[in-house]
Design goal:
- Keywords: Coiled coil, Repeat.
- InterPro entries: Leu-rich_rpt, LRR-containing_regulator, LRR_dom_sf.
- Pfam families: LRR_6.
- The protein is an alpha/beta fold.
- Among the domains are: 218 residues, no CATH class; 147 residues, Ribonuclease Inhibitor (Leucine-rich repeat, LRR (right-handed beta-alpha superhelix)).
- The chain is 54% helix and 6% strand.
- It has a 13-stranded parallel beta sheet, covered by helices on one side.
- Helix 18 links the parallel strand 9 and strand 10.
Length: 618
């Protein structure tokens, strides 16, 4: 009803969302009433009934009979069905609008990258044909963006029309003709008092009690209405958190007070607490926007005290907010050594801006772009940054969907870089081609990389494992830590890596967890470590490779100092054998958590570990 909408708009919802929420609340109320009443099958109304009779019912003040109540219930169910259809149409329009907006954002990011390429090509003037290709791409992108904007305009018109129809239908159909305004307001207030608290939170909603009491024909209606209402309340919860005024102060988003304190401290104000770390600005998970990032970067550049660590993870900084920090990195006064932007919305354009700044920066040591949807489009810019930058030592690109094409470009820059020590490209949908490119870069005499994380890329499989094995066998490889967990290397890949370990003199830690390695692959690793006289491997992780069998005992008696075998199926017989021979092992730490051992086997292992002066986890 219209009286519900002003109260919902006070929570930060737009008029359209308030209307949708009002419709959803009415649907929940009607559906629950239908469930509790459990009416009989409705009798179709005769064709002689007029539309006015459908809404008016019996005369005012005259009680309805049993047949009249049944007809009224039938009419109410028809109105609810019409409202539900319109709400579904509105939700479909919302989804289509979001998809078009996503496409528009992608095109805008591509246009930003093309403009940067055009600027670079114009400065270098290598080939006019290349410049013309970029300009043609820009013209095509401009046409695509214009088409998407027209489509968004049309969808917005349809969206507004659907909302108007919903509001009109709600005003006409939802309120009984015999009810007064005061009665409707009292009913609304009572319903809001009895509304479940789960509808106002972001947590999961359980409908088990509802489903138990509801007949089968009404359960779907209840669930659809509740789901629609929960999603609308979730949007309004976020809007109220972002737009509601701060307690005792002006309107501000969560995290704004922390931002103001940080800017004041950078300007020379004395911090009001002892949690301030000298040379560090930590505004992680403060809901910062692009504008906030620009303001903060300006304050850091003009700060009266040097800032070496800038931690901005878990915010809403997009490609528009990456420009000012990029300018900060190019500044001669910049002394920032750590920049943490994990879990933001930089995208390809934002990452390309930062990569361009790295070409001129000589102070940054640690750059964390974990989960920023970088994509393969920014890989060329990162390649150029690695070619020119000689100060960066740690680069994290975990979960950025670089794919093979992006990792190939990144590897070209890595092969010419002599400063980067740690690289994380895990969970990037990388296949064999990307892993092979990394392996070639590891064999370059220029590369100084000592720690590589390329796990959670199951597409690489055995072929990727063989490429890494070839890199480990090369005398120029300096890799000390290799994380290849979750790559599905299987026994063949484990055997290839084991053969490389026999001649490797640098690798000290190897992570092969969750790789479907069975006893043959683990035995190959154990045999290689036993035979090798030059291997320095002392930490091995084989978690979640469930079928290792007797290979567990063989691995424990190599030269390893730390062995992790969590989530491995270990039989009581093998556990007993391991306990009896544990005193002859060089192990100093053994992890056997969640291996399915009973109490007696665990007790025997604890006693053996205490006698061998070994830290064990069971």
């Amino acid at each position: 009803s219209p009286s519900r909408q002003p109260r919902l708009q006070e929570c930060g919802a737009s008029p359209e969302r308030a209307a949708a929420a009002a419709v959803s609340e009415m649907m929940v109320d009607d559906a629950m009433e239908e469930v509790s009443s459990s009416p009989k099958a409705p009798t179709p109304r005769s064709s002689s009934s007029s539309d006015g009779d459908e809404r008016s019912g019996s005369s005012e003040g005259e009680p309805l009979g049993e047949e009249g109540e049944e007809v009224e219930r039938y009419r109410a169910s028809r109105r609810r069905g019409a409202l539900n259809d319109k709400l579904s149409e509105l939700q479909g329009l919302n989804g289509e609008l979001c998809r078009v907006n996503d496409r528009l954002g992608s095109e805008l990011r591509r246009r930003e990258w093309s403009l940067r390429r055009l600027r670079d090509e114009s400065e270098d003037v290598p080939d006019p044909s290349e410049v013309e290709v970029v300009r043609a791409e820009l013209r095509r992108q401009a046409e695509t963006i214009a088409g998407l904007q027209n489509e968004i305009t049309k969808l917005n018109g349809k969206h507004k029309q659907a909302c108007k129809v919903l509001v009109d239908r709600l005003a006409l159909d939802a309120t009984p003709a015999t009810a007064t305004v005061e009665e409707v307001l009292e009913e609304e207030a009572e319903m809001l008092k009895q509304a479940p608290s789960a509808l106002c939170t972001r947590g999961p909603l359980s409908c088990s009690n509802m489903s138990e009491s509801a007949p089968p024909r009404a359960t779907g209606c209840v669930w659809n209405a509740v789901f629609s209402l929960v999603r609308t309340w979730d949007d309004m919860w976020r809007a109220s958190k972002l737009n509601s005024p701060a307690p005792g102060g002006p309107e501000a988003r969560p995290g704004q007070s922390a931002l103001r304190r940080a800017i004041a401290a950078l300007g020379g104000a004395v911090p009001d607490d002892d949690e301030e770390v000298e040379g560090e600005v930590n505004l992680s998970h403060c809901n910062l926007s692009d504008r906030d990032a620009v303001e903060l970067a300006g304050a850091v550049e003009a700060a009266k005290r040097p800032v070496e660590k800038l931690l901005l993870g878990g915010n809403r900084i997009g490609w528009g907010g990456a420009g000012r920090p990029a300018e900060l990195l190019q500044s001669k006064q910049c002394v920032v050594t750590t920049l943490n932007l994990r879990w933001n919305w930089l995208g390809e354009a934002g990452a390309a801006r930062l990569a361009g700044a790295l070409e001129l920066n000589n102070t940054l040591i640690d750059l964390d772009l974990w989960k920023n949807d970088v994509g393969p489009g920014a890989a060329a810019a990162l390649r150029d940054a690695l070619r020119h930058n000689q100060s960066l030592e740690r680069l994290s690109l975990w979960g950025n969907r670089l794919r093979d094409v992006g990792v190939v470009q990144l590897s070209k820059g890595l092969a010419e870089n002599s400063s980067l020590l740690r690289l994380d490209v895990a969970d990037n949908h990388v296949g064999p081609e990307g892993i092979e490119a990394l392996a070639r870069a590891l064999q370059s005499p220029t590369t100084a990389l000592t720690q590589l994380s390329c796990g959670l890329n199951p597409l690489s499989a055995v072929r990727g494992a063989k490429a890494l094995a070839a890199a480990l066998a090369a005398p120029t490889c300096r890799l000390q830590v290799l994380h290849a967990d979750g790559n599905l290397v299987a026994d063949a890949g484990a055997a290839a890596l084991a053969a490389a370990l026999a001649d490797n003199t640098s690798l000290t830690e190897l992570n092969l967890a969750s790789n479907k390695i069975a006893a043959p692959g683990a035995d190959a690793v154990a045999d290689a470590l036993d035979r090798s006289s030059c291997s320095v491997l002392n930490r091995l992780h084989l978690d979640s490779n469930t079928k290792l069998g007797p290979a567990v005992v063989n691995l424990a008696h190599t030269g390893l100092l730390e062995l992790t075998l969590a989530h491995v199926d270990l039989s009581p017989r093998h556990a007993s054998h391991l306990a009896d021979t544990l005193h002859r092992s060089h192990l100093r730490a053994l992890n056997l958590k969640d291996t399915g051992l009973d109490h007696d086997a665990k007790a025997k292992l604890r006693v053996a570990a205490n006698q061998a002066d070994l830290a064990i986890k069971l």
